[in-house]
Amino acid sequence: MKSYEELLERLYKELPEKAKEKARFKMPQFEVIIQGNTTIITNFVDVAEKLRRDPKHLLKYLTKESGAAANIDRKRLLMKGRFREKALNKKLEAYIREFVLCKECGKPDTTIITQDKIQYLRCEACGARSPIPTLK
Ligand SMILES: [Zn+2]
């Protein structure tokens, strides 16, 4: 009689590779609180690190998309104005799709490289390289 763990392990091994990869990557979510007229993303730097992106890059994206002034304060992001958690997480998801997930294989194991003033997303899993917009 096999143990439950052994059974689980066997089932997991039989999963197609793609399903395993999907299970491995969980989209991170911002945790947001609003104080007066300031929106605070309490886990901002943690999210950027999970995505292996420079927090300043993610900051540029968010300020461009929301039109709000924002600055990083230790692990948090302080934004002028009131923003809903749901709306901010939608922007985060759009960022992940554009600047983190590989355009070819969809995996998150990517880095941003610059060549001839053009930025590319380079995938460590499949080797694909796709140009991405430069954030100013
Ligand atoms: Zn790839």
Key attributes of the depicted protein:
136 residues; 2 domains; 5 helices; alpha+beta; binds zinc ion; Defensin A-like; four-stranded antiparallel sheet; three-stranded antiparallel sheet
Task: Please tell me about this protein's structure.
It contains five helices and seven strands. By secondary structure, it is α+β, with helices and mostly antiparallel strands. The strands form two sheets. Strands 1-2-4-3 form a four-stranded antiparallel beta sheet, covered by helices on one side. A three-stranded antiparallel beta sheet has the order 5-6-7, with no helix packed on it. Helix 4 (55-66) crosses helix 5 (85-99). The longest helix has 15 residues, at 85-99. It starts with a helix and ends with a strand.
- What is the CATH C level class of the largest domain, in words? Alpha Beta
Any ligands, ions or cofactors bound here, and which? zinc ion
Summed over residues and divided by their number, the pLDDT gives a mean of 91
| Proportion of residues in extended strands | 15-25%
**Total helical elements:** 5
CATH fold name of the largest domain, please? Answer: Defensin A-like
